[in-house]
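User: Quick one: structure for sequence A, then sequence B.

Assistant: Sequence A:
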Amino acid sequence: MGKSRGGWNTKVHLVAANERTALTFSLSGGQAHDAPEGRSLLKQWNTGLTGLPMLMDRAYEGDETRQLVLDLGFEPVVPPKANRAASWQYDRSLYKRRNEVVDLEQSADAFEQGVLISSRA
């Protein structure tokens, strides 16, 4: 649990196969940035899968995270931020399916609230 501007909270970082199957997850304090936590989770996650698309939230669109995803053998599917000097192509229709994983994450948030008995901002 960590303190951010919104108060005490916890973030769930999640790697999922689909809208119902979480492959691995980690928790971090609310003040932690998403990208370093996500990279740490991906480095610990050992998989033999390659060549599959990995849908990512925009918080993970940085060069270091995208390169790690490529190094792990996945295709990053994330739009560039609007202020990027050099943008890239990505599968827009596939990116729109990211909400399926967000729904799973919200289920994990509800579970986390019940177990940790923490108030969310």
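Sequence B:
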Amino acid sequence: MEFAFIALPFFALLFAIVQVSLMLLVNSALDTALTDVARSIWARETQNAAPSFAQVKTAVCAGVPMLNCDELRIEVSANADAADVNPAAYDAKCFDPDLEPPATCYDPGAARDVLVLRAAYKWPFGIGITDFGSGSMLVSTAVFKNEIF
């Protein structure tokens, strides 16, 4: 009888712990995948040319198999100097799930440019039967300076 009183709160807490743990695991994997892609852009590993937007998105998705790649949003912006970088500023059109990302969302820059590579993914909470709120936006950012190429 006593278990009946605590069963619902216990399982709700257990479910919440699993959901948050999974979200943090995916966020960590997104960080790692974005860092790997940033390194390939930085070093121009793909035949001395910057990878295309599709290649960047495919590489990030390959690093995080738990994501629905159609909902992954990516922005690469170039800045001439580190003082021009504002990591908090972003192009809202690049992250709108209802729009196709415009071409301005991908600027691999030139030699010695400072690049901001940002990826965002809306992680849903819930078990498919019901959605508990609007979910959480997972965001990963990498800032780096292009090599001389």
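The longest strand covers residues 114-123. The helical segments are 2-43, 53-63.

User: Thanks, that's what I needed.
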